[in-house]
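Deliverable D4.2, example record:
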Amino acid sequence: AVANTCDESVTLDSGSENRFTMNGTFQVDQTPKSILQNMLSAIGGHIVYSNGQFKLVSATYKTPTVTLDESNLRSGLTVNTRVSKKELFNAVKGIYSEPENKYQPQDYPVLTNASFEAEDNNERNYAEFNFPFTTSSQTCQRLAKIQLLKARQQITVVATFDLNAFELNVGDTVQITNSRMGFSNKTFEVANWNISVQSDNDGSPALVVNCELRETASQVYDFSTGDYSTVSSGKATNLTS
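Output generated by the structure prediction step:
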């Protein structure tokens, strides 16, 4: 499924390209972890180990199929409405491998957002996301925008649910309805998930699902051709081939 998503065609200002491709090299003296992290940067995703298998999660919106409300709760809700300031940023910069520059590292267009900057007392705070396995500046711009908008989705929820939450997994989305919090089919992404046992009302043991959720929205992954910026063609040096 993720492979099919990567192969989806994305419209550019001129022509089109696959949504995600991985292009790069590595030295075998690098740690497997660092190699894997560089590879995963090409899809803006991560890997989850679940039920004895590795699951690949890409930076795309997943339509929720599960809805949980007050009747599914087996605990109170712990809600945090903001992340710490050191985790918050309103601009993104970084490097990628530029084909026109003989695949040498080069900056992709810096991404800024005036609205987010105003929310942060008009201070520009950069986060750096490098894409060593990406050779398209357009792909870098899409990935950078996703990282920025994900960071601005700040509401997190920790709660225990009944077994209706059993079919969820890390990286899935779920809709939460809770009248006290004002959530009406609000979409969250599952950041953490595990099963435990707690006593039911009659004292008998019951399986429950503990979830850590972070708000998300389909708009995080939206991108139009008007959002692209041009990159100056490489040729950083005039050395002969």
